[in-house]
Amino acid sequence: MIKLMVADDHPVVREGLKKMFEKSSNIEVTGEARNGQEVLNKVKSNDYDMILLDISMPGRNWIEVLKELKEQKPDLPILIISMHKEEEYIVRALKAGAAGYLTKESLPGELITAVKKIHQGGKYITISIAEKLAYHLDKNIEKPMHQTLSDREYQVLLLIAKGKSTKEIAEELYLSCNTVSTYRTRVLEKMDMKNTAELIHYAFKNGLVE
Asked: At 160, is the pLDDT very low, low, confident or very high (cuts 50, 70, 90)?
């Protein structure tokens, strides 16, 4: 039996996934989490064979949660489930240690196939995601400016683009306001921009935020 934790902040989504996996004879949802910190806490005290991790939960940023999970339990596979199709999310997830990436538009059968393949030690991405990654690698000859940012700098960029204040970003990322300001300065320097307005324009133009 494959023991799963389902991490998603929407109870309806968690319940839907549980019912879907009930139709599979060897997959069982034995844990649930509503945010990243809850995932980390439960992994410390419970044994799971795999984590299904949504990347849009409130609280701690998903990339931090993913990296900390891999530090705690390097052999615990993590399958990302997300509404984001952009290759930037996919690349960062796989680089941070995810064993697979599926969008929430995926069919139930595909999700079950992904879980079984990853449990056997494999990796899983869809054909459409593979095509996006191939296109991403082609573009890497001349990287977009945001790909030069560290994960933390990229997080700050996205939150700035979403209209968050320095205080709000500090609270969301568990940083001081001064540290957030430092990251903002680094982002501006690396991307050769003068102000927040230019960052926001870039983020929307390049599809980093909706």
From this structure: very high
pLDDT at res. 143: 67
**Contact (CB, 8 A) for 31 and 52:** no
Strands 2-7, 50-54: parallel, antiparallel or unpaired by DSSP? parallel
Question: Which range, 27-41, 103-117, 118-132, 191-205, has the best average confidence (pLDDT)?
Answer: 27-41
What is the span of the domain harbouring residue 24? 2-138
* CATH number of the domain enclosing 199: 1.10.10.10
Give the total number of structural domains in the chain.
2
Residue 210 counted as domain residue: no
Instruction: Give pLDDT, residue 87.
Output: 73
Question: Amino acid identity of 63?
Answer: I
pTM flag (> 0.85): no
